[in-house]
Design goal:
By secondary structure, the protein is mostly helical. It has one domain: Helix Hairpins. The protein contains nine helices and no strands. The radius of gyration is 25 Å and the shape is elongated. 25% of the residues are buried.
């Protein structure tokens, strides 16, 4: 066995390399944001707490409300978190930058943080598109392999497998997160499902943001779970959007054929084209969101 064959056998799949690069990129970005913005937030905490106390005593320092909220300080008690620019929240912020969600609940305030954010997004957004595209293709391939396997075992068409796949994705990326957010954030079910869709569709209004309430102490796993849910949920929802586009294109072609059948010449031409042309399947994933 030559060196080339040994290298091919030991070669790590490219999706794992891309995934490792993606995770490392986001974590490194989170560390840099943490150091650039965290110290600034720590210096401001004492001043903002004093302003908040004046607000509660005199009801005149209304400008402190926005500052306290931005720094992650509770307005109703003396309890406060470590601020929004902890490592976990900084890493989640880095993920929202490269995925273009951009809630707007926190943003860099230092000059270094703002400049770094520009270059971090410049290289991070294309990397995010490439990785999610590959992940979406793998998810699509797994679904098709399962469908083909069951179809071979049952000896008949199993189109209902696709429906079960979509239903499973809905449960995994919408129903389960909805229950988690309802429990951790105290949101209603409608608010939680609304947040799930606004996040995974990258709309990101910012009216509801997970791991963002200064009145609560969140477990350490919560931010990690939220980041993983965003990553895989984006790939899944983009895949669903591409399937929806494919279905709409097929309906459009059928309508064209139906209207064209009123003209005998056009109808025969369309029928011949449809007979000779195989339907194509678009396996692209994340481009639907851009």
């Amino acid at each position: 066995m030559g060196f080339k064959e040994m290298f091919n056998l030991a070669r790590v799949p490219s999706i794992l390399l891309l995934g490792a690069l993606y995770v490392a990129y986001v974590l490194i970005g989170g560390v840099i944001f943490w150091h650039l913005e965290g110290q600034l937030g720590t210096r401001d905490v004492g001043y903002i707490i004093e302003q908040k106390q004046n607000l509660l005593n005199k009801y005149t320092c209304l400008n402190a409300v926005q500052d306290a909220s931005k720094a992650g300080i509770s307005l109703r008690s003396n309890y406060t978190t470590d601020g929004f620019w902890k490592f976990t929240t900084s890493a989640v912020f880095a993920a929202t930058v490269v995925t273009t969600i951009g809630y707007g609940n926190i943003s860099p305030r230092s000059s270094g943080g703002q400049i770094f954010c520009v270059f971090f997004a410049l290289f991070g957004i294309p990397l995010n598109i490439v990785v999610l595209n590959r992940v979406g293709k793998y998810m699509l391939a797994i679904e098709r392999n399962i469908s083909d396997f069951l179809e071979g075992k049952m000896n008949h068409n199993t189109r209902w497998i696709h429906f079960i796949s979509y239903l499973s994705g809905m449960v995994l990326f919408f129903v389960v997160p909805m229950l988690v957010f309802q429990n951790q954030e105290g949101w209603t079910y409608s608010q939680a499902i609304y947040y799930c869709f606004i996040t995974l569709s990258t709309i990101g209004f910012g009216d509801f943001v997970a791991d963002n309430n200064p009145e609560k102490t969140y477990p350490d796993w919560y931010s990690i779970l939220t980041a993983c849910w965003i990553f895989f949920g984006l790939a899944w929802l983009a895949l669903v959007i591409n399937h929806s586009i494919e279905i709409l294109e097929r309906i459009n072609n059928q309508l064209k054929g139906w209207w064209g059948s009123k003209n005998p010449k056009e109808g025969s031409a369309n029928a011949e084209d449809n007979h000779n042309t195989e339907p194509e399947t678009d396996t692209s994933c994340y481009e639907a969101n851009y």
